From TrEMBL:
Residues annotated as domain Putative restriction endonuclease: 18-167
Protein's name in the database: Putative restriction endonuclease domain-containing protein
Top-level division of the source organism's lineage: Bacteria
Organism of derivation: Desulfamplus magnetovallimortis
Lineage: Bacteria, Pseudomonadati, Thermodesulfobacteriota, Desulfobacteria, Desulfobacterales
Pfam families named among the record's database cross-references: Uma2
Gene3D superfamilies referenced in this protein's UniProt entry, alphabetically: tt1808, chain A
Membrane-crossing segments per the record: none
Amino acid sequence: MDKKMNVQVQPQSKMTPDEYFEFDNKSDIRHEFFDGELFAMTGATKNHNLINTSLTVNLVNGITNSTCRVFSNDMRVKIENGYVYPDLAVACSDLEFESNDLDTLTNPIVIVEILSNSTEAFDRGDKFSYYRMIPTLKEYILVSQNKCRVEQFIRKEKKMWSMLYYEDMAQIMKIESVNCELLLSDIYKWVEFNK
């Protein structure tokens, strides 16, 4: 989704996590939650939806480890100081959830965000720093919806990440942590970039 709106839903006072869950579970739209503040999620563009669908299908078909599961943008993920809805999350082996309702994943191995003009700075900055605090996370992937460009961040050690950069439709991105290869032309299938 084209993630956070720049307008807080409830700016006057901080919410507790319980208040957030009650509000988010009753709402028709999803909200991300950071340090007691609530942020509404906005709708997605055509390119965003096409990329999300292609990524989901190709990840599901490409993962050779049968214990891995792909979750699309309605799976909430726990971060140290809140809750987010990444565009895609992959978890393997024993899936871990924050509670018995199984709607908040706590052990993603791969997270994918599809960049938009309104969220790119956040996805690259603060949100990536939140994701880096998830001990199970091994790869963070940013996908542009405006041009053929994918950036893959791979955890090498606790505080050391490497980055691979792809911008050719013929390139193959290897997602080592889930033993999957994705061709960029498959990720961008049906996507039309503005000239």
